[in-house]
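ugh ok fine here u go
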Amino acid sequence: MNVTFTRTGERRYRVSVEGPGVVSAYMEPAPGYDARLPHDMAHFVVENELGIMAGVFGQLAQGGHANTFRPVAGPPRGRIVKRGKRLADTNRDDAMLSEKVVAIACRVWNDGAPRPTPAAGVDGVSAEALARVCRAFDAASAVWCRLRVGESMTLTWRGGTREKGKRRSRTPRNIKG
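structure:
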């Protein structure tokens, strides 16, 4: 799945998703604008880096709407709405985990801590994983900060599965501007 973040105004952005098996959808305006790293981009990075498979973007990859995205083709139809609601209800724990990790990782990243401490984390998310997320924030932010209004950057959702009880551990992936 490709996720495109577009600067739509001085303090506004849009998120669009598309790909095989995905309902092409968008969210505009997207919440939580930040000049360095918009809130939903932070969610994308956290979920992609840690293998949180049913947070916002995992639900979208499974054909859901994460209770926030609208289909490009018009108003959501019954089957799409039902699937999205079922995915959101079933995966509430991953969505909440994503929110917690985003809040902590953004705080660590914005404070400029050289290396997060284990106490800075969430149960099951190591200091090393938080450090990896912060490095991925740096990479995404470097591209985002160069964009002008009307310009976009596209990130690729890796998908896949994680081992039971473990978050997937990989190095930062392709961030294209």
